[in-house]
Design goal:
The structure is a single chain. This protein has one domain. By secondary structure, the chain is an alpha+beta fold. The chain is globular. The termini are far apart. It has three helices and two strands, in the order αααββ.
């Protein structure tokens, strides 16, 4: 999967696009499993691998941390 969109990869299929679609789901502090189930409701075609890549990107940029199995949003 491409990190950034290109001429051939739409933004919604890139890692940064998937990460952007996770951000609206940050109303609470869910576990990874709870966030995955919420995300599947908004993007049923997405694989768990693409979800974890997007979540990893959010972790790397400091938008989310994990504490005791619960995600904490920093944005």
């Amino acid at each position: 999967m491409m990190i950034l969109p290109t001429k051939y990869v739409p933004a919604s299929d890139s890692v940064i696009g998937r990460a952007a679609s996770i951000l609206p789901l940050r109303d609470s502090n869910p576990t990874v499993s709870e966030l995955w189930h919420s995300y599947r409701g908004t993007a049923p075609e997405a694989s768990f691998d693409s979800f974890t890549e997007a979540l990893t990107l959010l972790f790397m940029i400091g938008a989310v941390t994990i504490s005791a199995g619960v995600l904490r949003w920093e944005v």
